[in-house]
Structures are given as structure tokens and as C-alpha cells.
Specification:
alpha+beta, Aminopeptidase, 4 helices, 28% strand, globular
């Protein structure tokens, strides 16, 4: 039996190369990507899922989220997003077409959001035109 080691971590060089290819294959937003922005779920070096936290002057955005096609629906997307939310220092915005997925993780629909998110939403609508509508949602960091 082959033992596997699944981990959520910052990608190493080979894993980041996989992320770059998956972002291209899935036609995801790819502006100003840096390896340190990403976390991956990796199984012995094979990227299963990935997501990025992007810092702006006025907001933090969760984006560029993907799960390899043959593993979708198995919880990897939720797991990596929850990992990022657990480490969040403040509120997080997401621009998404996946309303229900994000709502299940505690994001709520908002109609007021920072200028950086507005500009990103406009860019997505221009360059990533798809049939589904985009939503801006917000997750609020709870102080315990």
C-alpha cells in the first residue's frame, strides 16, 4: 500500500507551476499572482486544490480558487477556504459566481464594498465574461 501525505501549505516551486497551469486551464483571474499568496492542498506534490488571498490597500480578497476536475464535490474547495479563513486577520471579500458555495462558508451578499473590490469586479466583468452573474460577498472576522 502506498502511503500518501495530504497537506495544506504554501506551494513549493513545482506545486506553484501546477497552480499556474490549472489557473490557465480553468480560465481564472491571474493578475499579479505570487506564490506566497497561495495555499494548496497537495498529495505528495500533486496539487488537488488551491486558493489565493490577495491584499489590497483597502481590502483582502479570496480568489483564484480551484479544485482539479476529477476531485470536485469532495470537500477540497471548502477545506482550503476554511483554512484561509481560520488564519484571516480581518474581513474577506470574494467576487464569485458560486453564491451557494460561499454562503455555506459564511459569506454574505453585499452591495457596498471597497474601491479595490469594485475595480476587480469591473475587470472580471470585462475580461472574464461568462453567462453566470458575479456576486460580491463578504466574510466577517468574528472576535472571540
Amino acid at each position: 500500500m502506498i502511503e500518501t501525505e495530504i497537506a495544506i501549505k504554501q506551494p513549493d516551486e513545482k506545486e506553484y507551476e501546477q497552480v499556474l497551469q490549472l489557473v490557465k486551464d480553468f480560465w481564472l483571474e491571474n493578475s499579479n499572482m505570487k506564490p506566497e499568496q497561495f495555499r494548496v492542498i497537495s498529495d505528495n506534490g500533486r496539487v488537488l486544490a488551491f486558493a489565493r488571498m490577495k491584499e489590497y490597500v483597502d481590502a483582502t480578497e479570496l480568489g483564484t480558487l480551484g479544485v482539479v476536475k476529477d476531485l470536485r464535490g469532495k470537500g477540497y474547495g471548502s477545506k482550503i477556504v476554511q483554512h484561509l479563513l481560520d488564519g484571516a486577520k480581518g474581513d474577506i471579500y470574494v467576487i464569485t459566481t458560486l453564491f451557494k458555495f460561499n454562503a455555506n462558508l459564511g459569506f454574505v451578499l453585499v452591495d457596498k464594498y471597497p474601491e479595490s473590490i469594485k475595480q476587480k469586479m469591473e475587470m472580471c466583468a470585462r475580461h472574464y465574461h461568462i453567462d453566470e452573474p458575479y456576486f460580491v460577498m463578504k466574510w466577517e472576522k468574528k472576535d472571540i
